[in-house]
Amino acid sequence: MDAYWDLLNAGRDAVTTMSPERQAVELSKSDSDAMHVIPPDAQGGYLDWIDKFDAPFFEMSPYEAVRLDPQQRVLLETVWEAVEDAGLTTDQLSASRTGAYTSCFASQYWNMLSTAGVHDIHALLGASRYSVAAGRIAHLLNLRGPALGMEASCASSLVAVHVACQAIQADEIEMAIVSSANLLLCRNLELSGADAGLLSPTLRSRFGDRNADGFVPAEGAVTVILKRLSRAVEDGDQIYATILGSGVGSNGTQTQSLTDLAVTGLQDTFDVAYRAAGVSPGQVDYVEAHGTGTPEGDMTELSALSNFLREGRSPEQPCLVGSAKSNIGHTAIAAGLTGLLKAVLALRNRVIPRTLHVCEPSAVFDREDSPIKLATAREVWPDRERPGIAGVTSLGMFGTSAHMVLTEAPPTVATPRRKPSGTEALLMPLSAKNPTALRQLATAYAETLETAEDPVDVCFSAGVRRTQHNVRLAVAAADRQSLIDELREFGSGGRALFPVGSANRTAERPRVVFVFPGHGSQWTGMGRELLAESPVFAERIAECDQGIAQELGWSLVERLREGTPLSAIDEVQPALWAIQVGLAAMWRDWGIEPDLIVGHSMGEFAAATAAGALSVRDAAMAVCRRSRLMRECAGNGEMWAVGLNEAQALELIREHGDSISVGVLNSAYLTVLSGDAAALAKVVEPLRQRGVFCRQVSIGFASHSAAVDPMLPAMRAHLAGLRPRAAEVPIYSTVVDRLVEGTELDTEYWVANLRQPVRFASAIQAVLADQQQRTVFIEVSPHPVLTNSVEDSIDIAGANAEALPSLHRNSPEMVSLLSSLASMYTHGYVPDWERVTPGGRYVPLPRYPWQRERYWVNPSDEPDSTTSAPAAGLHRQEGRAVDVDVITRQIKLRLAEVLAMSPDMIDPTVPLTFSGLDSLLAAKLRTRMQQELDLHIPIRDFLSNHSLNDLATRAHRTGYGPAS
């Protein structure tokens, strides 16, 4: 679109001879079609890459792509680009009442397929020009509105816009996608036009010129998206122009010939359009005419415009008239949308491009009082002290005429930002369907960020207004330049410092487990940045602060803002509890909801608060009173982390009785011993001499041992007022080593929480026991102290899981959080991007970088065979195939043959439909499985979410035999 406007605005002519690349496509046709091939010296508006297509993006197999008419290919690509430009996502469009309206000329590619002997159903579907193209778009985007192919000759695409607008106004649909494509693969149209005297012998379209002699053929594809203005404004969309009204009519018997135009018929159509728009003809500033440059056609159209636009017009303000066909040629069935797009861009830029190749304007313009003037020079849009108004005309060869009335888009109202621009940390999510495309996108986004008014808007748009594909990159940065540098490095082939991942869009989102650690993650300055940057965090901390102040008489908010060191246990533990509660609120505000919550020692207070089992007030009371009691008993024992498992630790302390306990079981490699300092010294020193990991836990108190017994009665008295309630999120207790409902978290539970060992490793192992779903553990703390232990358990279990921190000591807090959120995104979790980038506004983004490859039928292509020589069968033993790897390999080979692709291109872990398998090809594949491998796989299994590995595993287990 930008290139189209640059061409129009600069007054350039795109009509030329074929490029060498396009000639190569033409010369690849069969000899029998040679007489119809466009000669290399012919002039027109030609596209270069019509033989190329990004089939994998549209989950289309090479088999189908070769059979797909290039007109449908360019329609699919322009539709996707229009959807992206509109800031729509497939999730927003899916199941919506959105209509798809298309127009294409009859397939010339079908002749080439037929000559090559390709007559199968995919060739038929690929060549059909009517509703198949619209249905393909509706299927691609899961649209539930009408899918219609429109036919009104060269007026088709503008008639389609009219029909779509009527459906929107009648509330039949919410939105409409209107597309049209015209490609010239043979000379049939040119020969017919030349025979009728319609083609220009001078090879230029000279609309409005006294000596106009015909049009020049051209190729093109255009897609527009239509929506109610009120909704587009409400949604913050990028609005190019507003359609005020439209009209469609025909000649009837006003002309003697089917192909002649009638002045009165055109005027009737204009009248319908302007009455519908509520606009006086005298208000129109510019009309983009059909303007083919044929003598009769130009005279009829210009006469009708001159007659109609005279009403209410001052002679000093004539309506300018022009035609894009002078720049690019006649795109035939796509001409209406081509002209509409020119008018829209002219309104948007308030510039009327000049019409080319005019030496002497037509006699229609000679009259001094002529209400129309040919736009032979680039002009700034006339200033009428009102929004500009434009008309667009499109004429069909058989009497149908369409006219549309447009005005400028309303001025946008800036949405107030939550905070001044430039102060936020940034998170940029990017995704593609191909690793190469992802790197190209990174470079393009870096360039966009260079000139963007506000980088937050770019990040917002990338998350909220872009479809999220399966190959993903997310970059967190403290500022614009750091983000640009990271994107450029990745785009140039460098190593990504931030997560790059692949998310299977059919898989369930990862299971999320919030992990709240106990004492030890505190650091001076923690939370200060988040208090200033995150309203959600600040609000939650303020709630906690009230409870702490009531219990202990000091303000946590003041101490965090001032960076006051926290050293006493009744300062550290209430602060850690509040920070954890605030961080959990931030994660949930971003849309990361926990499926399970696990607390560790005093971290269970934050876990209970986050799960809703304890109110903020009750949790504050409990943690403050307990930590105050612990301060009074400070110095009563020590705690040491040692590199032993539970059995080794119990054997080590067996002779020390109650003086030493196994206080914490973090993983199979890390246990915390708790108890008498002198006794611990006797145990730890020999371990250190043997090189076993030993580190003192700086708490100054022997929790989870007999040393706490003297304070338990007082603790029962102080916590007697607790009123636990049912948890909103499941909690796995590290005290009783099972799920708890929340109501169990009464006074006695918290006494046991301090006295009994922390069975954290067991809790993580229980979570990992269910490996049906990927799991992400998020440590909700100011610094990771349990992440390594979680990773140890993951490694031992061989689980599909990952552990992420929230913050890091003395590191930028928001960037740390966003970095972990980036990992969540790359592994398939879709955050609430509007909450991640609050106050962001939609801005245009780089379009998707197509990874086109050649898909073209050749004369030497042989007719497809549905069967091949049987391969070695899968010998069965007691109904079971010998080896699952053999089955996988054999199925892959046949799938690759059916899809006409290399076996290496098939990912055995994703659904077969992602490789382009449809119901027709599935039937063919099923037949080959039966005949060659004696596998009787139902078609529904091919088309479900089963992957190749799934089918092979089931075949190995159940046999998929004739009786299955």
From TrEMBL:
Residues 1-408 form the Ketosynthase family 3 (KS3) domain. Pfam families: Acyl_transf_1, CurL-like_PKS_C, ketoacyl-synt, Ketoacyl-synt_C, PP-binding. It comes from the Bacteria. InterPro entries: Ac_transferase_dom_sf, ACP-like_sf, Acyl_transferase_dom, Acyl_Trfase/lysoPLipase, Ketoacyl_synth_C, Ketoacyl_synth_N, Malonyl_transacylase_ACP-bd, PKS_Beta-ketoAc_synthase_dom. This is Malonyl CoA-acyl carrier protein transacylase. The keyword Lipoprotein does not apply. The keyword Heme does not apply. Keywords: Phosphopantetheine, Phosphoprotein, Transferase. It comes from Kibdelosporangium persicum. Residues 882-959 form the Carrier domain.
